[in-house]
Write a structure and sequence with these properties.
Helix 11 links the parallel strand 8 and strand 9. The longest helix is centred in the first third of the chain and has 26 residues. It contains 16 helices and twelve strands. The chain is globular. The chain is of the alpha/beta class. The protein has a six-stranded parallel β-sheet with strand order 3-2-1-4-5-6. Strands 9-8-7-10-11-12 form a six-stranded parallel β-sheet, sandwiched between helices. The termini are far apart.
């Protein structure tokens, strides 16, 4: 596909989306919903890892002097529904769930969901995401009736400059943010400290679990392999995971527990064909909540750079070893040293040689990486495993 034709196709897609947004506004925004006093809506529609790095600030918001009397509604991504309802139900008065895939592809679903979201008015709407999205979050903010609409000044990683110029006006206030690559938990902290006008004391994301008996058995000593990721460029080859699993079993004495989503079933079948030993296959068979307990009880987590890393760090019990091509370096990886000493990464060799130059790496890969994750060798991962296990001892 030529560059000119590709630009034309992208323009056409943007035009169609704009037309859909305009039509939906005409259908939905016929009358403003009545604004309820002391009501607050939070929009958080991104991925599981983003939610883990954000969720502790809901409790802080709920307990703050400024908003302690407010009824909080959370409009969230349905993929972390069970996690949020389990962990944050005591701080959120009402949940509204949105399926992003359907919302982007099905105009009837979009209309019905927007009718639901806009059926109530709020005293305050909060959209804390730093990397805002024009066709999803910002346009939902536009349609909701609210006395105040507060968002982040944001960046241009998920939005075009012309789109941002338009949607900046959807907000009554945009909270300033430092113009630099920043770890996402700190970015959220920056937003809420500015909103509440007070220092926030928490230093890292955390998850507190109640005791629970699982419906399946786990080995006494085990390592967890997470074979999935949200994008193909984040996925290390299944054959590589197989070799690492065999090394952990034969050389290190760990049983293997294989984890992943329903979308990883094909990879799990491939793993089964190549793996020499018995193992526990939980791919597509556990809820996110049960997955928390699997991680909590485990001895070591090895994963692609995905939500598994953030869940493991937040649980604080297990060491995690991440295989990464450097995507979003500085924003989602690596974890700052003062947050945890249990987070370890094997990066692409191009990044490994410059690990002492954080500024260079964050500027180069903070908004994406095209490095081939499968150029990370099995031997380098095994070497890091040995280092981590020696630290644990």
């Amino acid at each position: 596909m030529s560059f000119g034709f590709r630009r034309f196709v992208l323009f056409l897609i943007s035009f169609v989306k704009l037309w859909q947004v305009y039509c939906l506004r005409l259908l939905i925004n016929k009358s403003l919903s009545e604004v309820k006093k002391k009501s607050l809506l939070i929009l958080k529609l991104d991925e599981i890892g983003d939610y883990v790095l954000f969720r502790n600030f809901i409790e802080i918001l709920k307990k703050s002097n400024k908003y302690k009397d407010y009824k909080i509604t959370l409009l969230g991504n349905i993929i972390w529904k069970s996690l949020a309802e389990k962990l944050d139900g005591e701080f959120v008065d009402e949940f509204i769930w949105l399926d992003r895939i359907k919302f982007n592809r099905n105009i009837i679903y979009s209309y019905r969901k927007l009718k639901e979201v806009t059926s109530k008015g709020y005293e305050l709407v909060l959209s804390p995401a730093y990397s805002r999205e024009f066709f999803c979050t910002d346009n939902i903010v536009k349609l909701i009736s609210a006395k105040e609409k507060i968002g982040s000044i944001g960046d241009l990683s998920n939005i075009k400059k012309w789109q941002k110029k338009i949607s900046d006006y959807y907000y009554t206030m945009l909270i300033p943010a430092r113009n630099e690559i920043m770890f996402e938990f700190y970015r959220n902290k920056e937003f809420f400290e500015s909103l509440l006008r007070e220092k926030i004391q928490i230093k890292k994301p955390y998850i507190e679990l109640e005791s629970k008996k699982l419906s399946f058995d786990l080995p006494k000593k085990y390592a967890i392999l997470f074979i999935g990721a949200s994008s193909s460029y984040r996925k290390w080859n299944i054959e590589n995971f197989t070799k690492v699993g065999e090394y952990l079993k034969s050389k290190c004495g760990y049983d293997i527990v294989l984890c992943g989503a329903l979308s990883d079933i094909k990879g799990a079948k491939k793993f089964k064909r190549h793996f020499k030993y018995e193992y526990v296959d939980l791919v597509g068979r556990t809820s996110i909540v049960d997955l928390l307990y699997v991680i909590y009880k485990g001895n070591l987590v090895i994963a692609n750079e995905t939500s598994a890393a953030h869940l493991t760090v937040a649980l604080e019990m297990t060491s995690v070893l991440i295989i990464s091509n450097g995507n979003h370096y500085g924003r989602f990886t690596p974890y700052p040293k003062d947050m945890t000493n249990k987070y370890h990464v094997i990066y692409h060799p191009q990044i490994e040689k410059d690990l002492d130059n954080y500024k260079k790496l964050s500027n180069s890969y903070g908004y994406g990486s095209k490095l081939n994750i499968n150029e990370i060798s099995v031997e380098s991962v095994m070497k890091k495993i040995d280092e981590v296990l020696n630290e644990i001892k």
